[in-house]
Every structure is written in C-alpha cells, then in structure tokens.
Amino acid sequence: MFELRPILLAEDNPRDAELTCEALADCNLANLVTLVRDGVEVMEFLRCEGKYTKRKPVNPAVMILDIKMPRMDGIDVLRAIRSDPVLKLIPVVMLTSSREDQDLIRSYELGINAYVVKPVKFLEFVEAVKQLGIFWALHNELPPTGASTHEQ
Which stretches within the chain are classed as H helix? Predict the structure, then answer.
C-alpha cells in the first residue's frame, strides 16, 4: 500500500518559513508539510518524542533543512540523522542563505542530498522551493521506512 510521507521543513526564520510553505502549497502536493523551528524539534519529530509522541513513525519524503538554527544547527542535525540507522536514509536538502564553503563541504561530507542557497529575489526563491518540492515529493523513489543497507 502506498503511503504518502510528510515533508519536514526546518526553518527558524518566520518569513522564509512562510514563503517556503506557500511555495510548496502552490505545487498542489498532497504531502503534509510540518514546520519545525530548530534542530532539537527536528530530532523530536523524527524520533516521535515530545509533542510528536502520537505521530505515526514514518520518515519524511524529504527534509528541507536550514543550517543556521537555534538550539541545534543544521550541521548537527545532519550528523545525528546520518548516524542513526532508522533515519540515515531520509533525503535531506539544505536550503540556506549560507554561501560559506565550509558549510557546503561539511554538508556534503555528512551526506546531504542537495545544497541550495536561498535566492534573494522573491520569485526565484518561490520557484526554487517549488522545484525542490516537486522533485523530492513526487519523483524521488524512497526506500521503505526502516530499510537498511545492512543485512539482518
């Protein structure tokens, strides 16, 4: 049975979060978009902890992750996800304003699936998010939740 997975958006900037959610809604995706405001909340969502304890334990279709967030930044979130056997296969797209080489390199070293610098112009930002949403929610094939590359 086909299960529609959520899109997890980790963004602490209210304006960027609103624009991203609106752009994803404009794509008419059926996926529920869950907005979290920091890295700690990302991990609570993924691990079904805190206010997410009643959430069905299904990995998102994609996580759109900002680097610069309070409490736990995107690099630390990525490190935690990639070291967790249950979470490590989640597609993660870094959507950030950081053009710093060290952030880009570190993200790829930790297994990011894509690194997108937020366009400054409104229409370019909206178009970039729409393309991300359509590709990762509609076209990308995901392994089953809980799948692992290790034989059991």
Answer: 14-26, 39-46, 74-82, 101-109, 122-134
Please report whether residue 147 resides in a domain. no
List Cα–Cα distances, 135 to 79, 91, 146, in angstroms: 24, 11, 22
Residue 9: which H helix or E strand, with range? Answer: strand 7-10
Q: What is the pLDDT of residues 75-104, one digit of tens each?
A: 999 999 999 999 999 999 999 988 999 999
Is residue 27 packed enough to be buried (19+ CB in 10 Å), middle (13-18) or exposed (0-12)? Answer: middle
How high is the pLDDT of residue 152? 39
Tell me, rounded to whole angstroms, the distance of Cα 13 from its chain centroid: 15
Q: Where in the sequence is the domain holding 111, given as residue range(s)?
A: 7-139
Q: Give the CATH number, domain containing residue 120.
A: 3.40.50.2300
Q: Under DSSP, is residue 122 helix (H, G, I), strand (E, B) or coil? A: helix
pTM surpassing 0.70? yes
